[in-house]
User: Fold Futalosine hydrolase from Streptomyces glaucescens.
Amino acid sequence: MELQAEEGLLTTSAVPRVLVATAVPAERDAVARTFPGTTGQVVAVGVGPARAAACVATALTGAARDGRPFTLVVSAGIGGGFAPGAPVGSLVVADEITAADLGAETADGFLPVTELGFGTITHRCPAALVRDAAAATGARPGTVLTVSTVTGTAARAAALRARHPRALAEAMEGFGVAEAAAAHGVPVLELRAVSNPVGPRDRAAWRIGEALDALADGFGKLAPVLEGWTSHDRHDR
Ligand SMILES: O=C(O)c1cccc(C(=O)CC[C@H]2O[C@@H](n3cnc4c(=O)[nH]cnc43)[C@H](O)[C@@H]2O)c1
Assistant:
């Protein structure tokens, strides 16, 4: 928070500062191609939800301690897309970030931790921000699943879609990033560029270069939206 003089009064307002968390350096560099450093910081935090949560929590704590807190966290990178809504090369913006495999397997199927009586499996992204991000980038809004195991069969893809009919994409960091942001009371967004279909494992079908270009292009268009993301907007959910 920063103290500002406004018409002779001292008021408190948040300076928009965005932390963008990618998994790997190639994703970080793609975002940094188009995302101005003045808007925030782009960091590669590692693969998987636990590593992402630990690194994002550390960055949020450090920034707050230094008196330059982040006001928004964005989980960004490549991801798998569910057909037919999210083809390779397209962008998906999360309106919900859901941990798809956090729970217990039972004889009657999977039970999320929420049905076991604890925890959370979903973080919602601010509705106005999702709407503006989708309009600016052309990304489709929907649920982005976080998994600890990349889906590799048609049966697993179908099971995920049956449990999460609004799912457009899966990746491995969003829920960890969102948990860290929530612990700090900071809103979260997730933007994924689709590099491969969710389904039977086929490494030859990955289009990582195409997805990284789509990610860079998307962040160039998203940057003005994020720069305009004010504390007033943050209450418009
Ligand atoms: O070995 C495989 O078959 C395989 C298939 C897809 C992705 C991987 C990865 O190791 C990438 C992990 C990395 O990229 C994100 N990502 C990209 N595609 C997916 C996906 O279909 N499901 C989950 N995560 C994906 C993820 O966020 C990681 O950062 C291996």
